[in-house]
């Protein structure tokens, strides 16, 4: 169990290293996609998203140190479990998309929609992972102000991001995902 601000800071640092590795993978995948004729949309919100996600990790640590508070073991365990499950979902989404996964909205115009893996249950599993992570990661150390503030900010960002992404993915993608919710997993029919 993560106990105290020092251990929590180490956990957040690990998440930060993970994000840097994801950005490197994203950059590599972007180069491959552009070489195959991909197009990018949503550049304006991408910078805001990058700053927001960095600020989230910083806020987690700042609140843990500035407002240390006892965290009930059950809450800390539930939050840690949620954060770990969010990471597992993120990795499942990344593995399913393969070299089509990216932190930017980069679309191969004639590629078939990816409908396997977690995409069988929800349109945007990676964004679901982010929603869960923003709620859970701060609560591991009782940083409830960070959890609330960044969850609300993330909801606003996702409104913009999801609209841009779905518009860019086009009608074939829309048709393939017509029976799936954006963020609430569903068991597929049939």
What does this structure look like?
The chain has about 190 residues and is mainly α. It has a single domain, classed as Four Helix Bundle (Hemerythrin (Met), subunit A). It is about 70% helix and about 5% strand. The protein is built from five helices and two strands. It has helices spanning about 5-35, 45-65, 75-95, 125-140, 145-175, and strands spanning about 40, 105. The chain has a two-stranded antiparallel sheet with strand order 1-2. Helix 1 (about 5-35) runs antiparallel to helix 2, helix 3 (about 75-95) packs antiparallel against helix 4 (about 125-140) and helix 4 (about 125-140) packs antiparallel against helix 5. The protein starts with a helix and ends in a 14-residue tail after the last helix. The model has no long low-confidence stretch (mean pLDDT about 95).
SSE blueprint:
Elements: H1 4-35, E1 39-41, H2 43-66, H3 73-97, E2 105-107, H4 125-139, H5 144-176
- In round numbers, the mean pLDDT is 93
Stretches with pLDDT under 50, minimum 5 residues: none
Number of strands: 2
Write down the secondary-structure element order.
HEHHEHH
Specify the CATH architecture.
Up-down Bundle
The biggest beta sheet, please?
2 strands, antiparallel
- CATH hierarchy class name: Mainly Alpha
Number of helices: 5
Radius of gyration, in angstroms, nearest whole number: 17 Å
Taking the alpha carbons of the first and last residues, their distance comes to 41 Å
List the strand order in the largest sheet.
1-2
Beta-strand content bin: under 5%
- What's the shape? globular
Question: What do we call the CATH topology?
Answer: Four Helix Bundle (Hemerythrin (Met), subunit A)
The total number of structural domains is 1
Question: Structural class of the helices, strands and pairings?
Answer: mainly alpha
Helical amount: 55-70%
